[in-house]
Specification:
The complex is a heterodimer. Chain A has strands at 5-7, 10-13, 19-24, 31-38, 42-50, 53-57, 64-68, 74-78, 87-96, 102-106, 110-114. Chain A is built from no helices and 11 strands. Chain A starts with a strand and ends with a strand. By secondary structure, chain A is mainly β. In chain A, strands 2, 4, 5, 6, 9, 10 and 11 form a 7-stranded mixed sheet that branches. Chain A has a 4-stranded antiparallel sheet with strand order 1-3-8-7, with no helix packed on it. Chain B is mainly β. Chain B has no helices and 11 strands. In chain B, strands 2, 4, 5, 9, 10 and 11 form a 6-stranded mixed sheet that branches. In chain B, strands 1-3-8-7-6 form a 5-stranded antiparallel sheet, with no helix packed on it. In chain B, 0% of the residues lie in helices and 55% in strands. Chain B has strands spanning 4-7, 10-14, 19-25, 32-37, 43-49, 55-58, 61-66, 71-76, 85-92, 101-103, 107-112. The chains are: A mainly beta, B mainly beta. The interface between A and B is medium-sized, with 29 and 24 residues.
Chain lengths: 115, 113
Amino acid sequence: DSGVTQTPKHLITATGQRVTLRCSPRSGDLSVYWYQQSLDQGLQFLIQYYNGEERAKGNILERFSAQQFPDLHSELNLSSLELGDSALYFCASSVRSLAGSYEQYFGPGTRLTVT
Amino acid sequence: SQELEQSPQSLIVQEGKNLTINCTSSKTLYGLYWYKQKYGEGLIFLMMLQKGGEEKSHEKITAKLDEKKQQSSLHITASQPSHAGIYLCGAPSSGGSNYKLTFGKGTLLTVNP
């Protein structure tokens, strides 16, 4: 158990709908990262938040948005869903170690199926 | 953009055999992460290498980082069925505070008893 929690575990929805995925980082971790994993694209970075502020963006679609709340949990909002959005969505959190590295720990993921 | 190539793509070994998985970067490596994933499940952090020449071990898994070759290798000694899964390498995009990771496509390891 990495200490990162994600809900829900599975989500099935129809095209055109909107869903919200939730992530709680490990206690004390200020950074939250969102990744998408699909068979054709592999594991891809979407967006990073640090202590409530957006820090970095990857190949995140405009239909997708995220935020990190004062209690440090994060939500990823996916709207106008398409079949191609079906994937595993992971959240990770990190904290700077004494050695200066950032070890990222991943949650169990949310499997999104768009029908 | 940075690309990570893992080899082999898949590997089938007999229990007890040693094996090596490689991860080669198209750009300078500022560190290298190794994760293990069971199909459809979350990624389990194995280890992170920061400096060239660094070598770390966790149980029977050893990883090395060769900065000059922009490559890392993961070596499993005396493999067991519990080692089966997908091994992913990931690298940060820069050496600064932006630690978004780019991942390889993964190596699927099967260990036959």
